[in-house]
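User: two proteins, same treatment. go.

Assistant:
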Amino acid sequence: MTKAQIEAALKRVQAWPTDAQEELARLVLEIEAELGEGAYRATPEELSGIDRGLRDAAEGKFASEQEVEAVFARYRH
């Protein structure tokens, strides 16, 4: 992709819904972190989810095998 194509794409992004723009921003940050351009900085929402998961794990709250399988089954098709 050329620089002009990237610039044109970024201009179109400005017309996208906010949710789509936020998703693109998250993807860009992930790619950038994978490229070693800098440390990934989790969003406040991600940090909150991590804290919630750690708290649940510490309390022994885990999904059953049946619950996990049900989620996977929903997205396999």
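Protein 2:
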Amino acid sequence: MARTERNRLSPMLERFSRKVTEATGTSTAFIIALLVIVIWIATGPLFHFSDTWQLVINTGTTIVTFLMVFLIQRSQNKDALAIHLKLNEIVAALEGASNRLIDVEDLTEEEILTLHSHYRELVKMAKADLKLTQTHSIEEAAARHGIKYGTVRAKA
């Protein structure tokens, strides 16, 4: 498929994906799905609960599930990206926030675990303080903690 075809197809798929995920997340969609199951069960005696009767519901639900997985994943990917962008904007704009956390989702799992352990240390230090909101970064917390307990000298 040519790149220009993909570029034209993408907005259409995005609109379709959004509409389908919005529609399938409603009470009406649930009731329709429930009615399909009830009708299928009610027709069981008519078809003598045959293998074909069972195959109809199995095939239908498999196809719907298969397609919905991709639609929901596309929608979640877009939502996650939007949330990351909003959080990045907050981190970038907030004075005292560590810019190292911008695009933290792109770090490796090992790097994220390292950051997590640093923040656990920050929590330990903050619990020793009377006011939890006094520290803004690990470095600042370590410096304040050191000054507080006399292991680091305050800057003049």
